[in-house]
Design goal:
Length: 417
Amino acid sequence: MTEMKADVVVLGAGIVGVSAALHLQQRGRDVVLIDRHGRAGEETSYGNAGLIECASVFPYMFPRDWRQVMRYALNRSTEMRFHVSALPVVMPWLLKYFLASSPQGALRSAEAAFPLIKRSLIEHEALIAQAGVPELLRKTGWIKLFRTDASFEKSLGELAKVRGFGIDGNILDAAGIAAHEPHLNGEFSGAIHWPSPGFIPDPGALAKAYADLFVRNGGRFIAADARTLTQAGGAWRVSTAAGGVSGRDAVVALGPWSDAIFKPLGYKIPLGVKRGYHLHLRPQGNAVLHHPILDADRGFLLAPMNRGIRLTTGAEFARRDAPPTPSQIDAALPLARDLFPLGAAVDARPWMGARPCLPDMLPVIGRAARHPGLWFDFGHQHHGLTLGPATGRLLAEMMTGETPFANPQPFAAERFG
């Protein structure tokens, strides 16, 4: 049995953990990356919509429209579903989410996240160039469709707010929608094309390309169980099949499984989970989808992935490890076929993942207050792919004593008491 030593042990090889490992490595740290799969991007980082959302300033907050809330409460929306059996676990977190989603709270979260959002595509472009995978970035932006005048007018108000942050979108009428996406079907009140976000047609492959870059640059990637983490003699140690890996510092970047580390250590961080599903389908005939398309009124998104057209759902509130219940896919699929000519499914069954969320829709980034050498980097909600490299840079700057490019205070775990 051998003991491997490093400066830093990073727990979790999703896009967040791999990005943190790369930024630490670039600053001269000897880093070991740990993941139970032994492969990067096998969980949440695989199944998202593929957007590097540098135009999405305001996070996904709890709605304040009582009609929308009632649709959610009655499980009548493709955008949100909940398990009744999970309500005793989910409701306390939803209450925190609701309280954090006031107009003032949403503005605070937007202002805190904006420096990260602003750098998101810049940081990805740098890593994509280093990894040598330019084909994994498309600069198409994405389109948000509206079927009612009311929802379109509301979104125009939201567009006015983000313009205050220096971000713009292109307003499309029916002719503009047809020019951008000639194979869409339906009657639309309008759309907004967000041109600045990047699109990744294979998010799992991007995480793996970043992990390959990390290894090529001298990093070590080990399959092990992060739950074996212990602290002894001023170091953090993870057990492996071949012995152990220890480092002066450890980074918890386990996404929705981060509580497996921080809870036993006594940290009361309100980490919640929004589950989600996707299904790949073939386009019919010569139909082509040029952009990711969000059907705002029907609550689903279509994205032109390398594997096929990816149909993604909204949020499912359930126990994290409960069996899949892809009723949102079942509800959205006929609506998606009505929007775009979709053929047979590529996947044998829908994929399910879990988005790690804090009530204020901001990640936890920074030092663990009571345990020297322990650092947090998790809770990126719907923006893990977007923010991974930016938060990796911020964390690495904090860990190496550099001046952080963004104010880290809003992301401290201590904000929850």
